[in-house]
Amino acid sequence: MGKHYSVGSKRLSVFVCLLFAAVCGCGTISPQPHGLPGPGLLAISGVVIDYSTKQPIGGALVFLEQVDAGGVDRPVAKTTTGADGTFQFNGLQAASYEIVANASVPSSGGAISTYATTMTLNVPVATNVGQIPLFPEYGAGFPTGVPVTIMGVVSSGSGSSTAVPVDVTLSALQGTLSTSTQGKFTIPVFTGSTERVTTAGGTAFCTNGMACVTYQLLVPGSMPSMGTYSPTGTNYSIPSQDPVEVLYVFEGKAFAPGSSTPDCAPPTQLAAPIVPLGTLVSANPSIAFTSCQ
Predict the structure, then answer these.
(1) How many C-beta neighbours within 10 Å does residue 239 have?
(2) What pLDDT was estimated at residue 28?
(3) Burial 73-102 (b: 16+ CB within 10 A, else e)
């Protein structure tokens, strides 16, 4: 059986195991109150805590997401937790949302503590989800404390040996161990990431007829935890503490420089699978756009 972590008074049988290697046992904490958030009826709120210490995590990154037409969960709002670990999203439409949270923050001793991503699914508005636990990144078999850094090159051209500069937004997607974007969630990336870049011609590492730029994304070195929200308690899968495959899909979207107008054909390109830890063969993290105007 998979290992899970229960938030609330009722242990649910529904949880999602995202890893090849499952582990045994379980952990629980005391029941936490659920109900309406603070100001604003159409709001979602909660508190992010460290799974081991039960202490709040200030500075955690929290995305509120909804699935798009392509089956990918995209952020509709973003925030950072306060010093007490709390967050709140206000002014929401009446719908179901996913909460995606992670953190890479200094500990009390000054060392960096990096946590795997935790996903809370099917959260309705007017909800305080209570405590959302973050688990250490265990992709290497033990917490390394620092995120993994993925580096690559983005290139763009007309397809006829003409360099065409474009703006590119980059996203890290994660979910199951499949290499498609279906069922993937957008993962918050950490400080030092270049989420938006602009290609340019004449760079030394560029092939003829292409505009290029380097990028880097800093992400947790672990597969995520996941749980489906329940007002009586949410169960979360616990990332394996053994070495496991850690898989991401990296996505680039091209736009005409200085605008929100999509460019290139197609305007979206993927690099998948990117395997920062594990034995699977990793794809080249570089992304190339052609037929750009």
Answers:
(1) 29
(2) 34
(3) bbbeeeeebeeebbbbbeebeeeebbbbbb
Q: Assign domain 4-140+222-242 to its CATH superfamily.
A: Immunoglobulins (2.60.40.10)
CA 214 to chain CA centroid, nearest Å: 21
Q: Please write the tens of the pLDDT for every residue from 119-157.
A: 999 999 999 999 999 998 876 666 668 899 999 999 999
- Beta strand 196-198 with 246-255 is unpaired
The DSSP output letter for 11 is -
**Could you give the CA distance from residue 115 to residue 96 in angstroms, rounded to a whole number?**
25
Complete edge-to-edge strand list for the sheet that includes strand 148-156: 211-219, 148-156, 287-289
Q: Is the dihedral of CA 17, 117, 244, 154 positive or negative?
A: positive
pLDDT in tens, 218-251: 999 988 999 999 999 999 998 777 777 889 999 9
Spans of all domains in the chain = 4-140+222-242, 148-217+248-289
Tokens 């290497």 correspond to 140
- Separation CA 33–CA 36 (nearest Å): 10
Burial classification of residue 212, based on how many CB atoms lie within 10 Å of its CB (0-12 exposed, 13-18 middle, 19 or more buried): buried
pLDDT, tens only, 196-208: 999 998 888 887 7
Angle at 204 (CA atoms; ends 250, 283), nearest 5 degrees: 25
Which tokens sit at 155?
Answer: 């290139």
Q: Which residues pair with 86 in a beta bridge?
A: 47
CA 266, distance to chain mean position in Å, is 24
| Cβ(186)–Cβ(171) below 8 Å | yes
